[in-house]
Amino acid sequence: MSEFLGVAFSPYVRHWTGTAPNAKVPLWNSYSQQDIVQMLEVIALQFNKISTYSIGYAGYYPPTTPWNQIDSNCHIAGAAAQLNRLRGRVAIEVAQGIYQQDNPAHQQAEIEAAFSAASSANAIYPNTVTSLVFTNEYVINAQTANAVNAMIVANKHKAHNLNIKVGVRSHTFGQIANLYSPYYTQLKTLIQNCDFILCNLYPALHTATPTEGVNQVGQAFDQIKTAVADINPQCEVMIGETGWPSQGISFNNTQNNVANLLAYCEAIDKWAFEHRVMTYLFEAIDEPWKSNQNAQVPPTNPWQGPNGAEGHYGLWYLNQQGNYTHKKV
Question: In the chain, N or C: fewer CB atoms in 10 Å?
Answer without folding.
Answer: C
